[in-house]
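Re: weekly structure request thread

Next one in the queue (138 aa):
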Amino acid sequence: MSEAVDGGAVRNLRELFAPKEHDHGGLGTILAHRVYARRSGRRGAEFVDLAVLPPGTSIGRHRHGADRETYVVLDGSGMMFRDGEHFPVGAGDVIANRPFGEHGLVNDGPGDLRLLVFEEPEAARPRTSPAASGEATA
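Done, posted below.
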């Protein structure tokens, strides 16, 4: 651990990441750290995680309830599965996984895939018209 200029402790993420074996039934062991967890009764994001997927590892296909989980690819590349479709993702991509949708991610690249993951309850999102949000109407 380093010391800050003012004497306070500075933690490096490398010290905080913990291994997660077969995350959601995925391949291998990824590294993750929960940066933020919402307190009960509070509004806003349910959690904010940082994750590192070494080459050949994955977050297995899974579903959530009535919430939206978003992946922000910070570095690296991989193959995303979302609701029956596969597509490549890379640094700068933002992937919103709809409530009750199925999604997963494989690092099929040569280097680490680094992600910011956050989840928010569907009710917490501001309501917009389907046309403005890009969602199909039935």
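Residues 1-5, 129-138 have pLDDT under 50 and may be disordered. The first helix runs from residue 13 to 16.
Next request, please.
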